[in-house]
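Quick board copy: two proteins, each given as sequence then tokens.
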Amino acid sequence: MQNKKPAWSIRAEQPKDIDSIEYVTIRAFESAVHSDHHEQFIVRALRQSGQLSISLIAELDGQLIGHVAISPVSISSGTEGWYGLGPVSVLPEFQGQGIGRDLIETALAQLKAQHAQGCVVLGEPDYYARFGFRAVSQLVLEGVPAEYFQVLAFKNEIPQGNVQYHASFNATS
């Protein structure tokens, strides 16, 4: 039996998608206990500041059902070419079907194609491990438990230092 192609499609964000991305992001995080419910503000601020390096949407029958954002991060060592994954949002009624996985895999493939050095993520260790992310001691995001901050190197080198996300991640409105 052949694998069936998912019914959704993934494509780059377009200006007409912005309101729907905000709606999907709000809905995706509304019940999340680990969230401060500012994810939609973060995505908006990243877009407005020109820091939204990759913004992909999942669409099903013309409805936007998922979104992933990728933005540059800075590392105290000065190493360049590193990015942060997230937020990743899927409408609650579509979660658990592989949409988030497809969005993440597509976004990571695009990063690799752009010759990025690697990607970091702040999130559930078991979930992100399936994409190759792992916690490492030499790359740190201050103020968070080390196991929740994970790294995926596209080249074999992982820099040493503290990671800082763009100021857009402090957006609250």
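And the next:
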Amino acid sequence: MQINRLFEIIYIILDKKIVTAKELAQRFEVSTRTIYRDIETLSSAGIPVYMSKGKGGGISLLPDFVLNKVVLTDEEKEDILSSLKAVKTINLIETDTALKKLSSLFGESNTNWIEVDFSLWGSNTKNETEVFNTIKAAILSKKVISFSYASAKGEQITRKVEPLKLCFKAGAWYLYAYCKKRCDYRFFKLRRIKGLRALEQNFNRKAPKQIFFSKDISKEEGIKLKLKFTPRLAFRVYDEFDNYIENDDGSFIVEVTYYNESEWIFDYIESFGEGCEVLEPAHIREGIKTRLMNTLKHYI
């Protein structure tokens, strides 16, 4: 208990600048003699704490004292502030306030080496922030939420869920929640959520300590694609694939396996335009050909 009290005494003095032994004694429900012993312990540990008598006197710290010199290393201090700076890109006022307080508490700090922005080019960051904050509040207050969701199958379905965690994966924010419609846990991409409402209904379900985005797919048979890309699409090959072969002419051969064969695969392939050719499998190649012919009808 004493070590916790000692740390809290430091924080209180840092916040109030000067405090009396009586105030600390009342705060911790101990005697003033105990507080004096705590001050001696802190002084012996190298904390520059001192006491002054008379009107306006009390317990204080030397003005140039900062917490990191005693508790945190320079590397730990930079990690904390850089992490907060990254989270601040969500435009959360609370994070901005915490960042300013800790920057002041830690003294001088250089976090200008990193700049993070989670939003897409040209995206509506204001709407994303509102959705994020509404979901965050619902998670903390354990309130059920409802919204309209556009699934990968092209369906627009109203969902009522118990929000458990906000997750960031592969350049996008997701909500991990228990879906009352499916009676199962689901991921929902925040950008596809519309008409979000927090309901008065509470829930007791707890979020797992760790979430795995993908289920165990080691035993599932996926669809293996073999794609050829022109040199012009080198930037997307580098961005989106881990394994590829670069040919002498600058083109690329990519082999990738997906475990969910649906319309989104065709949409994804078509997003590469004329710079991508499906080599295998044959039914995907034929499917792309059919879709392109149907698209061509709009321009004849």
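Board note added afterward: Residues 168 and 253 are 30 Å apart (CA to CA).
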